[in-house]
Amino acid sequence: MKKLITCITLALLGMTAAMAEIDLTKPATEINLGNFPIGTWYDDNWDGLWSFESNDIQLYKNEQLVYDFKDAIKDFTVKAGTSGLILSFTCEETHRSYQFIKPVSLDKNIKMIIDRTDMSRHYEKTLAYKK
Question: Cα separation of 63 and 70, whole Å?
Fold first, then answer.
């Protein structure tokens, strides 16, 4: 069983290394998640639910839509690297830059990194996969 998991991990790392040069930069109105997983992830610190759809990213709190990023982002990229798939963008309206990392593993959780662009605030959290 350990050999099987090791082989799968090495295969995933090999695929990630082969895709390391991929950079899907899209205009703000064209969100395209590419190979980034579609679904929802939960931030238990803020009771926030991040929803990633093929052409939209939304943030909910207490089941209420807080922000729809579809027409409000710039510098949107999806890259594959040694740490996994990395989705990043900035939003002038929220004064933040966002980065979501799906590690190269069988785990469905993603790492979120948010930095304020108007002040020195940094937030990192592993988000639990919901659906």
Answer: 18
Q: What are phi and psi of 130, to 5 degrees?
A: -105, -50
> Is the pLDDT confidence value at 12 over 50?
no
Q: Is the pLDDT of residue 98 over 80?
A: yes
The 10 Å Cβ neighbour count of residue 88 is 16
pLDDT given at position 52? 92
Distance (Å, whole) CA 123 – CA 23:
24
Amino acid found at 23: D
Amino acid symbol at 127? L
Q: What's phi and psi for 105, nearest 5 deg? A: -165, 175
Query: Between β-strands 110-116 and 122-129, what pairing exists: parallel, antiparallel or unpaired?
Result: antiparallel
In angstroms, the CA 87 to CA 5 distance is 26
Contact between residue 32 and residue 41 where contact means Cβ atoms under 8 Å apart = no
Which pTM value belongs to this model? 0.75
